[in-house]
Each structure stands twice: as C-alpha cells, then as structure tokens.
User: Fold this.
Amino acid sequence: MSEDKIIVTISGKDGIGIVAEISSVLAKYEVNIEDIRQTIMQGCFMMFLLGDISKSKYSFKEIKDATTETGKKLGMEIWIQKKEIFDKMHTI
Amino acid sequence: MTFFNENSIIETINMIKVHNLDIRTVTLSLSLRDCCCDNVKDTGYKIRNKIFKYAKNLCKYAQEIEDEYSIPIINKRIAVTPISLIGESSKDYDYVYLAKVLDEAAKEVNVNFIGGFSALVEKGCTKGDIALLESIPQALKETQRVCSSINLASTKAGINMDAVKKMGRIIKETALLTKEADGIGAAKLVCFCNAPGDNPFMAGAFHGYGEPECALNIGVSGPGVVRAAVENLPKDADFGTLANKIKQIAFKITSTGELVGRRMAQKMDIPFGIIDLSLAPTPAIGDSVAGIFQAMGLEHAGAHGTTAALAMLNDAVKKGGIMASSYVGGLSGAFIPVSEDAGMIEAAKQGVLTFDKLEAMTCVCSVGLDMIAIPGDTPETTISGMIADEMAIGMINKKTTAVRIIPVPGKKVGDYAVYGGLLGEAPIMPVNKLSSETFINRGGRIPAPIHSLNN
Assistant:
C-alpha cells in the first residue's frame, strides 16, 4: 500500500554517522528501509530514504517525531512525508 | 519494488518551503436547513449542536494530515446554509443572535471563520432577507469570526438595484461600527454576482441550496510557486510556453490539494465536495499575484498589459486544475485582493494601480474588487455605484464577481488601513468624485441580459 510508504529527506553539512543514526532510529521504530540514495548538491549533503511502515506497531506521528528529533540533534534539516504526496503531484 | 525520483522530492519540498505552497483552507460545508424552528433560541440551540457534531474534529484531523504530508493547512473554516433562510421561520427575527451563535460555535470548534451569514436576493428580498441585511452591521460588530455575503445579481435574474442601494449604506454602517479597527467589519462582508454555493474561501463561503447535507471543500493556493516557475523561464519565452508552464504548476498544486481533501473527507467520514485552486496571495514576501505579473515582464501591477496577463494566468490555472481533478469548483482562478498582496499594496502606494484598473482586471480575474480601502467619507450611493458596475460585469460575462471594499472611517487618501494577519494592510485609494446618486436612487431591477447576439 502506498499509504504505508514514507520518504525521509535529510539535508545539511556532511558528517560522520548521519546514515547510521537515522537508520538506527528507523530500525527501533520498526520501519523497513527499502531504498537509500545520497548525493552532494551545491555543496550540501542530501539523503533520500524510502521506508515502509506497514509492519511497525508505532503510528506515523510517533515515527516522524522520533526521526525529526534525531535529525535535529545531528543539525540536519529533515522532512518525513507520506510518499503519496510525491506520487500524486508528479504523476498524471 | 517501489520507485522514487529525487528531483520530484526536491521540487515538492522547495514548493512548500521556499515558495509558500499551502492548503489555504479546509472548509466544512454544512447544511443547517434542519435547524429552523418557531423560536429563534431553539434554532440557535440546534445550530450550535449541529456544528459541534460535525466540526468537532475538523482541526484535529487537519493537524494529522499536515503531519502526514508536511504541507501547511493554514485555515480551518465552516460554511453554512444562508442564515436568512434559517432564521426566517422564527416568529421574532433575531439575526444578530444567530450571528452570535455562529461565532460561539466557531470559537468552540476552533475555526477562524464561519461563512454563511448570507442572503441570496438577486431577484428580490423575502422578509427574512431584509431582516438579515439590516442586522449585518450590528452582527459583524458583535462577532469576530462570522463572515457575511449577499448575492445581489445573477446572469439569469439581473441585478437587484434596490438591494444594491441598500448594501451601499450597510457597508458604510458596518465600517463605522468597527471604526476602532479601521472598519474591519466591512472586510468580512462581500457582495456577489453569480455566487457559487461551494466556494471554500472567505468572506464569501456559504453552503448553497443545491449542496448535499455536508461536504468537505478545499482551497489550495500558491502564487509564490507560479511566480518562481515563471521567473525560471527565459525572458523571451513566448506566451504558449508561459501558459503551459502555469498549467503544469496548477496541475501539481491541484493534485496535492485533492489528495489532502480526500484524506480529510475520509477521516471526517463525509463526502469530498470540490477543490478550489485559487491563487490567493498573502502579505508574505513572494506570495503575490502582482509578483507573477512582474515575472511575466510588466514593470508593476497596473501597467498596460496587466489585464491580459491576468486573463492568461486565470485561464491557465483553470486548465491545469481541471486536468488534475474531476471536481474543481468554487472560484478557481486568481484573486486580486489589494490589502493581502504585498505587490499590489506597493503598486497602490505608488499610485500606479488605480481603482479603475482594478475594475478592468475584475473582468478576467476569478472574483472581483477585493479588499480595497477607500476614503471613509465616500457617499453611500458612490459605493452602490461601484457595486452596480461590478455586478454588471459579472452578469453580462456570466462569471462570478464580487465587491469587498472598506470605506475606512475617518481616513482619507494618503492614509493607511491596517488589519494584520492574512487581511494585511492597504493605502486608502482615491475614488471617482462624480455623483451616482440619481442613478442609484431609481431602484428596481436591471433586467437579465440577452443570451444571443453575443458581441
């Protein structure tokens, strides 16, 4: 179900342990990571992560709050959105 | 395996973060027709209960959806059946009381505006309509969240000039009763021609006669997104390219709005009504329709060419929106509220955007003369004249037009009216000094126009 897919977008200054920290909080909240991509854009580190929350006992809100908290601690900008918004906006 | 495209993600986030894409309003449209009672207190009791029953979770669900998609939902609102109809069965009319009931109910469920203190009088007034009209100044003085709209004309019925005359006086009285806040009462009062019954935007939202028991209507906006897209095109891109770009952006905005609207309706367990894609500016930097004109190549809003630019913009927005959803409705197009648009404010301040140019622009925009501050000593009949002109434009061109002007008490050209928040601020604009008195005092009704010999 596309309702259960989330996209985590992280951007900021590159550093050690960003991917590790984010994946560990997602693991703790039982989110299955299906795909990760990273890139450097205009000197800025960017990571896109596709997760599946269908097996998680936690609500979307709980997962979002925990991940956002971790992102903030790392000093990164972080967006967690249901994937539907991108599918809807960019597909005819 | 699920796929995703990084560029789409970046584009969406940029639209929200940098260019102020938002869901401008989720509006619960609710029928109050089963609330009519002999006694106005009983009517009020039923209204309060019904609003609470349907809207108690409106804000909570909106917050949940905002979280899910990280897209801001700015306003939560309610539109109800025109109250003239609901209060009319009572033995003793007391529309001010009903306005207060609506205000309290709105506060209780935490919506910032409730629309529908309205009457549809394009062909004539019933006793209840007259009572409601006369109670508007007091009702808007004694409430904060109630919005009032009056339909004075339609292409099918013509223009009710008796009501147009009355509204000139009522607008002035309303402004005068709220003079300590620069006549803000008049900012919550709008006169319509061809008013749609499914519009989610204030001040003109009400639940039309042909609407279902309830529905969730949604209004999306995004002038900033359109401006950015136009700015990114080469300066010599032709109008076909320009129109296409606007359509693409309108499609994206509308699709997003429909997703949010349907989710919201599903959560509330009510039908999804319509999506209204209206480029509604805010005073925020960059979130300006006037900014789009500049991006298109005009020096400022008001330059010759502005009407053409607006016509193309309005049409392209509708075309893109129609492609994205089967249920596009409401006002859909581009709004030109002066006080709410930083670019328009600036143009008006410099004197390059005039009242007359705004009137010309309303022939092709989605609504009409909107949030224009005029001198407080403007005669009632001059205001009625402005309304009559605007109604005529709507009637003949088979479109919705509206008038929301504020004769700011005690202020004159050169002064400022300040409302704050989304309503913004506006320089007092000069108006034509010639008298409309004898014309307006004729009364009666301007007949409906012919539907052939179109030229």
User: Anything to note?
Assistant: Chain B has two domains: 27-193, 215-445. The CA atoms of residues 154 and 194 of chain B lie 5 Å apart. The longest strand of chain B covers residues 146-154.
